[in-house]
Structure formats: C-alpha cells, structure tokens
Task: structure prediction
Amino acid sequence: MRPGTEAELAEAVATAQGPLAIVGGGTRGVRPETGEVIETGGLSGITLYEPGALTLVVQAGTAVAEVETALAAEGQRLAFEPMDHRGLLGTVGAPTIGGVIAANVSGPRRIQAGAARDFALGVRFVDGTGTVIRNGGRVMKNVTGYDLVKLTAGSWGSLGVLTEVALKVLPAPAAQGSVVLTGLSTERAVAAMSRTLGSPFEVTGAAHLPEGPDGAPVTMIRVEGFEEQVRYRTGRLQALLEGFGAAHVALDTAADWAAIRDVKPFHEAAGDVWRVSCKPSDAPALAEKAGASGLIFDWGGGLIWVLMPKGTDLRTRLGDFGGHATLVRAAPETRAQLGTFQSEPAPVAALTAGLRARFDPKGLFNPGLMARAA
Result:
C-alpha cells in the first residue's frame, strides 16, 4: 500500500483490520516480520522552504538527497549529518526524511549541533485510530500535553506514521579542517578527544579508528566555519594536544568524515555490527570487554561501532554499563534471538507501553519491531 495523500493514509489506518508495517525508503534494514506494508514514499515533496528563516517543511516520504540538494542551493544543510545505512546493510532505495526523524539518525556532528530530534520543529502524523495529529511547528499547537516532536523522533514508527516534518536548518560552513593524531591507544585517544571537546574551539567531530586506512590508529578532531576561523582553531587545538604526540592539520577530510558517519570500514567486513552508546570514559573498558573484530569510536567515545563474530551476544559480554547496545546488522535468526534493541528499565518500559496504548490502542504499527531483548 502506497498512499498518495495524508487523507488516504488516515483512511487506510482507520480501516485496517490487522498489523501494519511502516516503511520509508527501506534502507535501515529494520522491519517487522508481520503486517501489511504501508510505504510513505507517496507522501513526497517540500511543502515550504524559507531560507531566511532557516525553516523547512517537508513531507515524510521525501528523499534525504532531495532535501540536501534544495538546501545546498541556498548554502544551507541538515546540521545533524544523518547516516546513510545502505553501504553497511547492503540495502537499496533512498533514505527518506521521515525515516531519519523516526529513527533519530544523527552523525558525527551530534556532539556539537545536537541530534535529529533537536532540529525537528514540528510533526504531522497519523495515529493508530486514523486521526491526523499535528504538534509543534509554525503553529505551535499542542492539544495532547505531550511533546510529540521529541517522542516521535526515535520511535521507529511505533506511535504513528509521520506525514510531514518541520525542520530547522543551518548555514553550510565555508571551510572545515581536522587535527589528526596517529598511533594513540584507545585510552589516550579518548583522553585527547575529551580534552578538545572541553575546549572553547567548537569541535564538530571527534572520532578514533584503532585501525586507520594504513593500519595504524588514527584520531581525528574536526572544526568548521570560515577559513580564518578554521586556521585559528586548528592551530589552537594542535597546541592543546601537544602532550599526545605530533598532530597535523588536514583540510580535505570530508570523505573521511563521511566514512565515519556511514561506518564505511565495516561495509565489506563479515560479522554482526552493533551500535553501543555509552559514557566516553567507559569506552576503552567496554572495547576491551567486547573482544571485537573491529571498532570505530565516534562522538568522542560516546558512540562505539562494534564488529563482532556472527551470533555473538555483545550485551552479555558488556554487562550493565549504563548505556545500551543496538544490533544494527545481523542474520534474521540472530536478530530474533537477541533482539534489535536493549531492554528498558521497568519504569521506562511502563511509560513506553502507556504511550503505545495512547497513540496506537489497537497495536497496529510495526508490531514487535521494538521488542527488547530479555
């Protein structure tokens, strides 16, 4: 089913007799095993774009590439740098802006700019009764008492089907540069990244690869802005990092940051891929516990991409660490056994169940998709 209008979508949901599997571009590889498929790609197009107000309103099924092209023509961009999952997961199709918000997809710039949810000004969606709900945005109408903009971001379509999103956008920088160190251990790399993130020099990326392109560890610290600003701030960061060995400045690293954003080192590698969110200070110990085949540290160590042998239960290996591990790429039988998402604490699980009952009382949307591992 591919509704062409919001009204068609609302009618389809209102008359649904069984589960519905909500699909945007189908590029993120997470889909419920049951349910009639509803594709949002028919809800496509930019509804409103006001470059002077840094505001964009776009239908949920619009391709991210279309949005980025329109923004680039005005010297603007999506600040949260959404990842493209296709290379990692071997999927096809085109990522949609609704899918980005529904999964709260945020790249390396999250540490400075914020997550996708932080740039969502408003949403329109169809709930489980077929009712169209509008929250936030230019009208700032909120009749539910919930901040639905934040709740829908990261809900993976479990509360409703997004039809339209209002976003804040930002100017694209004139230049970017990275301070690069080589040969650091994970502990030293996290310490170096933490030092720069605590500085006043507006770091917009901090990542560490234990095995860089030439096999040696590489740590990258990114800044963006006007050319003169970039030169000044990279110079100051070099001085700040003197105790961590020789650091050099690279000005042409956009491809390197795209590779980190899209987890390119794992694209052709065999094994399961996990996404671990943690305190940066915990990252070195967690990496050692994992015994991984490959590691990529982003967000200053707060995000670890972990490549594991197929079928490995990484959550059991890591134990309780005050974060969560999401299974991003694995065989269906592994996903069925371990679950995509980590279990929630009982109070949070109760809140989640209450929200689902409020917005999807018949349990139509993406059944079992966000079922947690026990």
Observations:
- The longest strand covers residues 161-168.
- Confidence is low (pLDDT under 50) at residues 139-143.
